Amino acid sequence: MDMKKRIYLELRNRTPSDVKELVLDNCRSNEGKIEGLTDEFEELEFLSTINVGLTSVANLPKLNKLKKLELSDNRISGGLEVLAEKCPNLTHLNLSGNKIKDLSTIEPLKKLESLKSLDLFNCEVTNLNDYRENVFKLLPQLTYLDGYDKEDKEAPDSDAEAYPEGLDDEDEDDDEEEEYDEDAAPGDDDEEEEGDEEEEEGEEEEEDDISGEEEEEEELNDGEVEDEDDYEEERGQTINCNKMNENTIAAVQ
């Protein structure tokens, strides 16, 4: 998709003056130049043209409110002096992965007085001796070079050159909390179920104990009844024997 068509699609029925952020990554530039971008984008604050085959920024329109410009992974080797004229309030500039070999190529950036962060990662200029020290001397307005300050402290997230769109940290925290709650809920249910099962098992054991005691009582009662029957039977036999002896003695007399 060429750059003009991509810009038309990114407008989404808006007028250029309504656009504050414009991402044109991976589209095709015509002859390595910016096309389709005009002065009508007067409110534009963020422009990204990563990997579009640019060799020059000469066709960049006047964008007074532009603060962040992404030009990484192109074939730019010079002509940066137009940036001070076209984007005077630029604070973040990413030129990583371009054909910049010498410090003289970035010297025109001195005129960008508001420039706070510059990225030259994967450019040949980074192989020069004392590269970082010399760049900070050349561009004293810089706070961060390739994501680190003069003391090699990493730039905070607020200064990182990332797309403005994206998931907020608060949304991520909310998602993590929701996932945690969802994971915790089944565990609670399992504990309740285990507790119910233990209570049921305890009730069954109590019932078994009660039934066992009742059986023992029945056996004892049965034993007592049997003993009484045996006693009555023996007593009857004794009485009969006594009567027979009395009859025998009477007959002899």
TrEMBL record:
Q: Where is this region: Disordered?
A: 149-253
Q: Which UniProt keywords apply?
A: Leucine-rich repeat, Nucleus, Repeat
Top-level division of the source organism's lineage: Eukaryota
The GO biological-process annotations, alphabetized, read as: regulation of apoptotic process
Positions of the U2A'/phosphoprotein 32 family A C-terminal domain: 128-146
Cellular localisation: Nucleus
The protein's matches in InterPro entries, at most eight in alphabetical order, are given as: AN32 (IPR045081), Leu-rich_rpt (IPR001611), LRR_dom_sf (IPR032675), U2A'_phosphoprotein32A_C (IPR003603)
**GO molecular function: any one?**
histone binding
Sequence ranges of Acidic residues compositional bias = 157-233
Q: Spans of biased composition, class Polar residues?
A: 237-253
For this UniProt entry, which segments traverse the membrane?
Answer: none
CC annotations in GO: nucleus
Q: Which family does it belong to?
A: Belongs to the ANP32 family.
Q: What does this protein do?
A: Multifunctional protein that is involved in the regulation of many processes.
Q: What is this protein called?
A: Acidic leucine-rich nuclear phosphoprotein 32 family member
